[in-house]
Amino acid sequence: MAFDRERIERAVREILLAIGEDPDREGLRDTPKRVAKMYEEVLSGYGDSPENHMVLFTERYDEMIIVRDIPIYSMCEHHMLPFFGKAHVAYIPGNDKVTGLSKLARIVDVYAKRLQLQERMTQQIADAIMEKLGAKGVMVVVEAQHLCMIMRGVKKPGSFTVTSAVKGVMRHEPTRMEALFLIKGR
Question: Record-annotated residues binding Zn(2+) (predicted)?
Answer without folding.
Answer: 76, 79, 148
